[in-house]
Amino acid sequence: MSSSNSTGMFKGAREYFPGIGRIPFEGPSSDNPLAFKHYDADRRIGDKTMAEHLRFAVCYWHSFCNAGHDPFGPGTRAYPWDAPAPSGDSPLARAEAKLDAAFEFFTKLGVPYYCFHDIDLAPDADDIGEYEKNLAHMVALAKQRQQATGMKLLWGTANLFSHPRYMNGASTNPDFDVVARAAVQVKAAIDATVELGGENYVFWGGREGYACLLNTDMKRELEHFARFLTMARDYGRSVGFTGNFLIEPKPMEPMKHQYDFDSATVAGFLQRHGLADDFKLNIEANHATLAGHSFDHDLQVASDAGLLGSIDANRGNPQNGWDTDQFPTDLYDTVGAMLVVLRQGGLQPGGLNFDAKVRRESTDAEDLFLAHIGGMDAFARGLEVAHALLADSPLETWRRERYAGFDNGAGRAFATGELDLPGLRAQALERGEPARRSGRQEAYENLINQYLLRAGNS
Ligand code: XLS
Ligand code: NI
Ligand code: NI
């Protein structure tokens, strides 16, 4: 194949997705499964292009490292980059092949960002020197690929949950040896993120939680967690990381209970430990639903606390109680999410990372493209509709009017703290029995459908 960068392939690299070129935008009437129907990167919606609003990222772990294994059987996909490398097989040679495949995919799909864990990108090793050397080698290659393709790193992170040493947690492990070992990976992953110009650094607390409260000193573990995050923050700032640190809440799985339960829990934790200026939240749809919330609820809680930093875009399955990490296709979800994002003025420097995996039964290379195209189209349509709702529909006026009683007079005095309880009671005497004001939920719901179904674009 050619050395052309337009399809993300490096000189001499083999083509991993033959027969698939750069995914074009063809519009809503196209029947081409390998074309965007709504995501038109350069189209302006309000003050930004779709690409600037949505800041899509592809994740390395589900898309290039996970061949479909589940607790009942091994992977179903034979990834060519996992096969013995013809030019001399080694874990590093396979990691290099995977990097080629990943950059080919990113470029053909036309996303601006990607995300990885340290050991998605580079082979893991128990020997600390070897681990650090592997990562540094792969980071240097990734940097070349980024320069050649214009791809950028949305965030890096360390996998502190797969290796058996982390079975009782990483920074919250009761064993100090493990806490120290976790620092090896976090330092290396922060260094990698800085070297690659990453705009954020994520902590998903994989096994930071407990399986059994009887053997757990929760208070102590949470104090260690805050210590560890503070050290990571201080180190990151000392080596020039200026982006956001992000905590990704999840209530359970793999642990029975995880400390970063949901937005509200993490916001309180960050504020309590003086971390809220440097840390924000990375909200994953399926984690919000696992916590018993809706996706937009947890986004709104984060946003209201000034802490919505980024999004892991996926969806759960209402029949299953676990993190199915499906690609987002539900337009109500994407409209709801984009309403929160637009109201707070955007996600930057965060983005929409597809922390999602194709189904175990989806075994064609093409399925990976179809999954991302569907997710990107669903969010593009969500963006269009949310923008139109905010710009053209009565939504904001209706919502504001519900609270109009607090805009002036005694209502305002109440809101600004100028009334005491007896004074508030006196208002009741003056005002008499309150009239019933309908919440008009049906009108709001109909409005969403009206804008979703409206033909054409706003
Ligand atoms: C797992 C998490 C994980 C993080 C990154 O449930 O979503 O993939 O996003 O460690
Ligand atoms: Ni998840
Ligand atoms: Ni995630």
UniProtKB/TrEMBL annotation:
InterPro entries: Xyl_isomerase-like_sf, Xylose_isom_bac, Xylose_isomerase. The keyword Membrane does not apply. Its EC number is 5.3.1.5. It is an enzyme of class 5 (isomerase). It is found in: Cytoplasm. Keywords: Carbohydrate metabolism, Cytoplasm, Isomerase, Magnesium, Metal-binding, Xylose metabolism. Mg(2+) 2 binds at residues 284, 287, 323, 325. GO terms for molecular function: xylose isomerase activity. Mg(2+) 1 binds at residues 248, 284, 312, 355. Coiled coil: none annotated. It catalyses: alpha-D-xylose = alpha-D-xylulofuranose. Its cofactor is Mg(2+). Binds 2 magnesium ions per subunit. Its main location: cytoplasm. The active site is at residues 117, 120. Homotetramer. Belongs to the xylose isomerase family. This is Xylose isomerase. It comes from Luteimonas salinilitoris.
